[in-house]
Amino acid sequence: MAKRWLLVCMMLIVSCMLTGCWDRRELEERASVLAIAVDVDEENEKNYRMTVQIPIPLKIAGSSGQGGGSNTDAVKIMSVTGRTISDATSNLQLRLNQRLFLGHTRVLAVSEEIAREGIEHIMDGFRREPQIRRLLWPIIVKGKAASLLEIKPELAQIPVVFIMDLIENGQKMGIIPNKTLGDFFNATSNKAMQPLLNYVEASRNEVKWKGIAIFRNHRMVGSLNPNHTWSLLQIRDKKRGGDVVVKLPETEDDYVTFRPRFVDSNLELKPLLRREEGLEAIYHCEIQGDIVELTKQGYRKGAPEKFIKEMEALIKKEMEERAEQMIVKVQKQYNSDIFKLGLKLRGHHYRDYWIKHDWIQDFRNFPIRVEYTIKLRRLGMEMQ
Amino acid sequence: MKKQNGGNAHFSFTSWQQTCLITSTLIGVGVLTLPRTATSRLLEAGWIVPILGSIGAYFALWMITKLSRRFPGMTIIEYSPLVWASPENPRLGKILSLPWIFIYLMFLYVISAISSRIFGEVVVTSVLLNTPLEVIIITMFLLAYFLCLHEVEVVARVNEILFPLNLFPVLFIAFASFQKAEWNHLFPLVRVPGKSMLEGALEATYSFSGYEIMMIYFAFAQRTSNKEKAGFFGILITTVVYTLIVVAGITVFGYEELQRVTWPTLELVKTTQVPGLILERLESAFLAVWVAAVFTTIANSYYTFIYGLRQFFGKGIVFQRIAALFLLIPLFFIALWPQNIVEIFKVSSLIGLGGLCLNIGIPLIYWLVLFLRGKGWDESKERKADG
Q1: Do B257 and A189 touch (CB under 8 A)?
Q2: Which residues from chain A sit within 8 angstroms of residue B182, using beta carbons?
Q3: Last residue of some domain: A175, A206, A224?
Q4: For A102, which residue in chain B has the nearest alpha carbon?
Q5: What are the pLDDT digits (tens) for B176-233?
Q6: Per the CB 3.0–4.6 Å rule, which of A239, A334, B128, B211 could disulfide with A174?
Q7: For residues B350 and A186, what is the distance between their CA atoms, to the nearest angstrom?
Q8: Least CB-CB distance to A130: which of B126, B130, B256?
């Protein structure tokens, strides 16, 4: 009998613990921020202006059946100012009925103006905040960062989802680099690497990927256009990059378009032959791909084998030129090692190179070459 | 002398259960910070730390096993009077062994307090931001208390059952994050001077503490089981898990970034992308499963402490149940002793050092005493008598 009473008591005590937890919060009880944009406040240069995009759950759920309203209704855009990011966040909270929740933030837009001043101050808050995911995408926006959140893409109900899809599909196709907040953190704390982030421009209805923004120690120093970014992606990440349009020699206005399919890249560090000491970096980049367009009819004159060889040489020349330009720009103009070259040097030539040089400064003068091998596999559905 | 206490429990642990006991006790809250602590001295070469550390652990555990072979079926509480004095003089033996047993039990006590504090801290800072720390600690204690209500063979079975939950999350995270790995982070292999190498190796041994519970549990091993083998595998599994998680940490973050994050393993979880986006914010799920791993560490230490007390006073299961309840109160205050996160990590590293001294020190001293008293070779005789 005593045992039964004990059991009853135990059950009562245990049920006291089933009251739920302090952090229980239903989905509709949160103000989930999907994207954050950080700008300089126009009224006070010292302040930040933070713009957030919060989806309105009811509108999203209801619109599918009722033909949907315009997509401005699906999200709420709010803008606050503050001396720091967390100051702005608490100011934002004062204007919201529900508690802010940053756990679903997917995009962090930073204006170029701020990025050029350095984003160390902004990032600290994001480093400390446990809700922030390291997988979110920081994006540098040309002009005002808030403009990225205010677009009305029409193809997607929520603008941020449109931007996310743009980046995600770009990644899958290998034309947009996957640069997450975690990558940015890793690269900024690493002495042998420099970070890069995606660079976009937003107009009223659209957003356009414009390449990448290059950083040097938390500070944006410049950008690369898509063509140069693709060269970088090929040699650095073995991503395929976009189509290559080459002007045909001896023609007025005719082009051949080459589409890379598979890319393999190898970084070789070898002693300089010309000088006694020193190293040089050679990227061996092999690209397999197809010709997808050749605007001049009857261009091919010789044997097909010869044509393939000719085309390969033409594309190789073009791609090496692009890579060359890109490297010169990155080295001489920006002096920022976004190639992860320092990492390899530190790893494999620690004693003979790394400890004798200050990589942050000496990256500028390190000889880098790129050798492409083009393997033209197919000509599409056309045989000529 | 106290055969009546755990008489039925004697000689019931299989080899596998012993391995599980060791592994689950070792794998605990330490894993959450291991990539950071391992790389603090040795930089890129931090993955060597668990491997170096395991050497000390093998040695200590080997001595513990040998002690247990020397006194088969006896826990450290039972055999230490025999080590310090002849069987005819049990009172002297008990007095002489008192300081050692006191240190041993206190260490287990403190370790269970600090482990639950660290666990509470990580839960409060990363997942349950509004839940009071005290609640998480008390819940953990109640779980440990629940285990203390039972006899010793239950501990072995609980550990056996929870064993997969100890391994799976870490292994999953380690392998899942290899897809993001940048292997150049691991090089150059050796670049730190010899002194930091030594310091790093010493610090490495800290991460291996917890196997001292075997000073008690080896007494319940089945006669046919191979304790050396069980111990070896216990440490080996832990070493592999530790090494994997450190390699994953270094290759994903690089050692510089690792020094900046408070809970590197948790950050690793956050960076891990599960294909298909079924689970966003994986860290909550990870911590939920991870409770099992932390529970086995805390509950094993606390149970061992309580069981040691019970044996020391020669009492039964009722004493164990009551003592376990009342001793939770001071335990709670010890857990809340460190005032901030910096102090917590300081205390935890001090505990690591203490654990190292204790794990190697006590068996070593016991063996020295045995040899000095000319009793070291009794083992062979007893074996003959057994077989």
Answers
A1: yes
A2: 340, 343
A3: A224
A4: B281
A5: 888 888 888 888 877 777 787 777 777 777 778 888 888 888 888 888 888 889 999 9
A6: A239
A7: 30
A8: B126
